[in-house]
């Protein structure tokens, strides 16, 4: 049930839903307590709504945020990828998932996360073009908070540090070269996908919730 809520309207629950789902087959007391804590949080924020639309002139602009938390899983040492895409001011797509292979560095984990986000970004772009939005020649800005990973997307990183990375992740270099994406540095303090890769302290979580345009409404 938590996973369902996180998919349809609550990106701020995406990380915890994905993490708890890994223990569905054999949950222990710790996992039950964590799930109970999430239910309490949902109950306390049940009047939050995702706000769509806006008044700005950028209603047709697609932007994304990509983040990773290196070695987050203590059992497998795998990292967690997260992304958020906005159309104008509206959040339209998000994801939190464990990476399929172990990353040897935070830079590699971020690079793999960019590849994951770019795959979704390409699909969204194709869909928007099919329904008549003229963005074919407009690069999608993808915000990343790791400068080493940004260098890799431009093909200017240390080759010795990236030659072992699965070739499937290198396709993003071509998408940057052909201007499908523009990779932009974003400070961690402004990273909307931060909460999709790890637990956040309360103050930072509330900032992220506001950035995702989840607002308290009264019927």
What do these coordinates show?
It is a single chain. This protein has a 5-stranded mixed β-sheet with strand order 4-3-2-5-6. It has helices at residues 2-8, 14-21, 29-44, 106-130, 147-153, 159-162, 171-177, 202-211; strands at 48-50, 62-69, 80-87, 90-98, 140-144, 181-185, 214-216. By secondary structure, the protein is α/β, with parallel strands linked by helices. 38% of the residues lie in helices and 19% in strands. It has 8 helices and 7 strands, in the order H-H-H-E-E-E-E-H-E-H-H-H-E-H-E. The longest helix has 25 residues, at 106-130. It starts with a helix and ends with a strand.
Number of helical regions = 8
Question: What is the CA–CA distance across the termini?
Answer: 24 Å
- Structural class by SSE content: alpha/beta
Major sheet details: 5 strands, mixed
Q: Give me the side-by-side strand order of the main sheet.
A: 4-3-2-5-6
Morphology call: globular
Give start-end ranges of low-pLDDT stretches: none
Helix content: 25-40%
Q: Could you give the order of the helices and strands?
A: HHHEEEEHEHHHEHE
The whole-angstrom Rg is: 18 Å
The counted number of beta strands is 7
Average pLDDT value? 90
The fraction of residues assigned to DSSP E strands is 15-25%
Question: Any chance you could write out the topology, listing elements then pairs?
Answer:
Layout: H1 2-8, H2 14-21, H3 29-44, E1 48-50, E2 62-69, E3 80-87, E4 90-98, H4 106-130, E5 140-144, H5 147-153, H6 159-162, H7 171-177, E6 181-185, H8 202-211, E7 214-216
Parallel strand pairs: 2-5, 5-6
Antiparallel strand pairs: 1-7, 2-3, 3-4
Helix pairs in contact: 1-2, 4-5
């Amino acid at each position: 049930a938590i996973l369902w809520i996180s998919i349809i309207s609550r990106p701020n629950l995406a990380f915890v839903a994905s993490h708890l789902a890994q223990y569905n087959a054999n949950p222990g007391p710790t996992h039950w307590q964590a799930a109970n804590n999430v239910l309490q949080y949902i109950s306390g924020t049940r009047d939050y709504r995702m706000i769509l639309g806006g008044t700005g002139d950028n209603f047709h602009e697609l932007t994304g945020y990509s983040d990773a938390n290196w070695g987050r899983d203590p059992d497998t040492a795998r990292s967690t990828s997260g992304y958020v895409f906005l159309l104008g001011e509206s959040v339209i797509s998000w994801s939190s998932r464990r990476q399929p292979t172990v990353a040897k560095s935070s830079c590699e984990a971020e690079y793999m996360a960019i590849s994951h986000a770019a795959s979704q970004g390409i699909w969204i772009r194709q869909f928007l073009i099919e329904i008549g939005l003229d963005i074919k020649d407009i690069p999608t800005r993808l915000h990343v908070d790791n400068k080493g990973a940004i260098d890799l997307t431009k093909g200017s990183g240390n080759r010795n540090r990236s030659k072992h990375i699965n070739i499937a992740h290198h396709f993003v270099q071509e998408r940057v070269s052909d201007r499908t994406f523009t990779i932009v540095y974003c400070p961690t303090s402004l990273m909307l996908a931060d909460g999709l890769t790890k637990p956040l302290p309360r103050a930072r979580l509330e900032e992220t919730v506001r950035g995702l345009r989840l607002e308290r409404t009264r019927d």
